[in-house]
Design a protein that fits this description.
The chain is of the alpha/beta class. The protein contains 5 helices and 5 strands. The chain has one domain: Rossmann fold (3-Layer(aba) Sandwich). The protein has a 5-stranded parallel beta sheet, sandwiched between helices. β4, α4 and β5 form a beta-alpha-beta unit. The two termini are 16 Å apart.
């Protein structure tokens, strides 16, 4: 069986950002739980900022390749900094190119990084709904991280993972048990 592909989609306009750090830490937790469940797993990162102006239209080859990568994932981690109390326009440009329901139940973890605690609900109120609209299955609460608390990220992910990672693992196992032509 092919390895489980965990793809982190990072919607920060700045490459190699703190948002990417958080996305990679979440993906590593997902990889660990899938490996413990007997799957082999790989992780990769898609930096939306690298798609540049190709996001402004339809049919750009690099954007098509990025969308193919997203569709080929077994788990998505979609991470964004918080801009104006929601996700970035850059991420929105990419997500707008995915049709309603197109992700067909793909297990997805929404992740937001913010400077202020009053944005804590943004991951559930703004990011999760757009992901569900395009067909993502978000079986867990999203991950919300304050910039000022990045040094506490391992402990935060331990607490989140204790509840959330079994649900993600179960969803991946269920999807992999269904013949490809059905999914």
């Amino acid at each position: 069986m092919e390895p489980c592909r965990i793809i982190s989609v990072v919607g920060n306009p700045k490459p190699a950002s703190r948002t990417r750090q958080v996305a990679e830490a979440v993906a590593a937790r997902v990889e660990a739980v899938l490996t413990a469940a007997g799957h082999t797993a790989t992780t990769d990162v898609l930096e939306v900022s690298e798609l540049g102006a190709g996001l402004l239209g339809w049919g750009d080859p690099a954007v098509k390749a990025a969308l193919a990568t997203i569709r080929s994932a077994d788990v998505l981690v979609v991470a964004t900094p918080t801009y104006k109390a929601t996700y970035t326009g850059l991420l929105k440009l990419l997500l707008d190119q995915i049709g309603g329901g197109e992700l067909a139940g793909l297990p997805t973890v929404p992740v937001q990084v913010a400077a202020a605690p009053q944005h804590a609900l943004a991951v559930e109120v703004h990011l999760r709904p757009v992901l569900v609209e395009i067909g993502a299955a978000c079986p867990t609460t999203g991950v919300f991280v304050l910039d000022s608390q990045l040094e506490q990220l391992p402990a935060q992910l331990d607490a989140w993972g204790a509840v959330s990672l079994p649900a993600i693992s179960a969803l991946v196992a269920a999807r992999r048990a269904v013949p490809t032509s059905v999914v």
